[in-house]
Amino acid sequence: MPIHGAVADLSAIIKAQSVSYLIVASRYINSDCLQQALSVCEERRIPVWRAHLKLEPVLPESRRAKPLAPTTISDDTTPAWQRTAAERYSKERRAG
What we know:
The protein is mainly alpha-helical and about 100 residues long.
């Protein structure tokens, strides 16, 4: 499935392409951006779908890397972006 651009480009993309539907592939899309996309699609009667994707390892358990201990990813030497990503990943794993 091709990615054609950002929400700001949506009207132009719809005019240039034959768009049958819009798939929102991120849970973290800003509510203003989502509302803008919904408005553009509603005006043109284009259905909007939200994709839910879950990636799971294929390797057998014995060959997988062992997860880091929580103290390893939350110490002061770990960059903030990495701690944030690790926290988000942990929450998603718990939510399952």
